[in-house]
Amino acid sequence: MIDFHCHIDLYPEPKKIIELSDKFGIYVLSVTTTPKAWTKTNALSKGKNRIRTALGLHPQIAHERLNELALFDLLISETKYVGEVGLDGSPELKQHLPAQLQAFEHILNSSSRTGGKIFSIHSRKAEDLVLDTLARFPDAGVPVLHWFSGTKKQLQRAIDMGCWFSVGPAMLRSMSGKSLVQQMPKDRVLMESDGPFVKISNRAALPTDTELIKKELALIWALTAKETEQILLNSFSTICKLGY
Ligand SMILES: [Zn+2]
Fold it and tell me: What is the CATH number of the domain that holds 32?
């Protein structure tokens, strides 16, 4: 299966997560939170061809790491995946929105200059601002909004702009999350664990938990497990081919 947003490098034993994913044949997008983490995280999955490492600068720490944007630019040509990036307008982070925006714009600009990338984007409490910013960088690549939790109207705008979505366990726990998933075009939905940040029954979510997500998606879409899996695999293959 597919886990399109997993922080492999933040588990206590990253190698175990890589072995587990390998054993079950799971395709994983290993997202990072700072440019400094990329080289080491990328090395962890050396020889594992189902794992790709995205270059990121998490919006929750972007204001402290603007000096790593130069490193971001040095590494950008090494990968076609960028994440975790984006904006976070939660009350405790709102004051840092100008710095977050500076980082996000820089990243989108770099990505445009290097031919476009596939993004895993955080947009909590900043959905409109994320979409406004993406609209200003039409050549940046393909945005995948991870754990989208905006309104139905914002979701529709994202759909109209060509965004993709990665759906995780937390979204499927709430009625509002489920109803957002229902509105997403089936052929632009991917799955994510967002482990180890997301917890399932008091333990960190794992790439293998995407099996549970697949079951939930089958229920929401009123399809069989097989049909659901086929749709997800087709979408995954489509987005991989959109590579630059
Ligand atoms: Zn994340």
Answer: 3.20.20.140
